[in-house]
Amino acid sequence: MNNFCERKSPSPSKLNGASRFAIEKLYGWGIRMKRPMTLTIFTGALLMTTLGAIGATPRLGSTIKKSFGKTPDGQPVDLYVLTNISGAEVSITNYGGAVVSLKVPDRSGKLADVVLGYETADGYVNDKSYFGALVGRYGNRIAHAQFVLDGKTYTLAKNNGENSLHGGIKGFNKAVWAAKVLSTKDGQSLELSYLSKDGEEGFPGNLKVKVIYTLTDANALQIEYSAATDKKTVVNLTNHSYFNLAGQSSGNILGHQLMIQADKFTPVDASLIPTGELRDVAGTPFDFRKSTAIGERIDQEDEQLKLGGGYDHNFVLRRAAGVGESLAARVVEPTTGRVLEVWTTEPGVQFYTGNFLDGKTAGKGSMTYPRRAAFCLETQHYPDSPNQPKFPSAVLNPGVRYHTITAYRFSVEK
Ligand code: GLA
């Protein structure tokens, strides 16, 4: 069984202090390190401050916590604002673990919020687009909402036609996660934990999930996913941030230049389930091996683009197994010079061009986001892997640690 990637740890040198600390402390997982690493947790000056008032200005290199509203059943949820030493800032809510805003500089140093989102928890409670959310237990689609493990058929909720999408009706994006702030030498970190119970949305096994977001001082948002199960199950965790590098209120993303490190992609049927083929991108509008404007070919007469209403496809990343994170994609926004690189330990990435956005959703700053106002690069195992024996396996066994890392690294081009 091809189980490469996350079921193995990336090389210890890829893990930052916060990650190691959290994994070892909370799960007791012994990570073998070639050499001891000194863990530096800056308490005191970098300690989280709890602020009730919206609008309080965060200090550089700090994390603050604000109230973000309540769930429909009255549970309070919070917003954590992580600011690095150069002023980049990410806000994350423990409702669905969603990245609510992400402010990074352009080539003149001007910050803009480059992700779509909502201003309060209510927006995320009602959301159907998965803005910024942590997606699980199985990100992307499972055909006919069914799969078989060891001869037993598991039936999931159908929430996308006949299929299961993004974990079902109440996926991880609708859960309230336990949150803990960690301050490390790498930057500001937020650890989110969730127990997905045996049978939740039809999936077998109690799954203990932990996600550590770190805003590094080098302007990267690193996301480290860990999980452990007590019964054989399938797992595919991702983040569903919608990016617009010109700023979240800047119209469409068709002028962004994209490179994806993929020679193949997984073509889909009419319900966006992979056919099982790994198709060469060469000679198709899916060839992003050289940086190309997202809009250059998006409306071409192409069967796959028609099925997706644009790009909504998994790309097979060109990466060697077991090498830690590799570059998956690079996006440049020419007018602001902002650059996003996506690095991951995962074998695939779903490139989605916001084809279902319809300008009716009220987002931050009273924005209503039109079709193709943003793009997603969802690092993942391929869609429908539980039913596709030739795809890298998404099975997780008891006693094995699920562990993946994805980093969104921001910089500028002059
Ligand atoms: C993923 C899917 C899309 C769509 C979005 C959410 O990217 O592949 O088809 O469902 O999530 O709207």
Molecular structure report:
There is one protein chain. With 414 residues, the protein is mainly beta. Helices cover 6% and strands 35% of the residues. The protein contains three helices and 28 strands. The longest helix is centred in the first third of the chain and has 11 residues. It is globular and about 55 Å long. Alpha-D-galactopyranose (GLA) binds next to strand 25 and strand 26. Alpha-D-galactopyranose binds next to strand 25 and strand 26.
| Strand adjacency order, main sheet | 12-13-14-15-28-24-23-18-21
Small molecules bound in the structure, each named once: alpha-D-galactopyranose
Compute the number of strand runs. 28
Count the helices. How many?
A: 3
What's the shape? Answer: globular
| Stretches with pLDDT under 50, minimum 5 residues | 1-55
Q: In a nutshell, what does this entry contain?
A:
The chain has 414 residues and is mostly beta strands. The chain has helices spanning 17-27, 121-126, 303-308; strands at 49-50, 62-70, 76-83, 89-93, 99-105, 111-113, 134-135, 141-142, 146-149, 152-155, 164-165, 178-184, 187-196, 207-216, 220-229, 233-234, 238-239, 257-260, 262-266, 279-280, 292-293, 312-317, 326-332, 338-344, 348-352, 376-380, 395-396, 402-412. The protein contains 3 helices and 28 strands.
What's the topology here?
Blueprint: H1 17-27, E1 49-50, E2 62-70, E3 76-83, E4 89-93, E5 99-105, E6 111-113, H2 121-126, E7 134-135, E8 141-142, E9 146-149, E10 152-155, E11 164-165, E12 178-184, E13 187-196, E14 207-216, E15 220-229, E16 233-234, E17 238-239, E18 257-260, E19 262-266, E20 279-280, E21 292-293, H3 303-308, E22 312-317, E23 326-332, E24 338-344, E25 348-352, E26 376-380, E27 395-396, E28 402-412
Parallel strand pairs: 1-2
Antiparallel strand pairs: 2-3, 3-4, 4-5, 5-6, 7-17, 8-11, 9-10, 12-13, 13-14, 14-15, 15-28, 16-27, 18-21, 18-23, 19-20, 19-22, 22-25, 23-24, 24-28, 25-26
The chain binds alpha-D-galactopyranose.
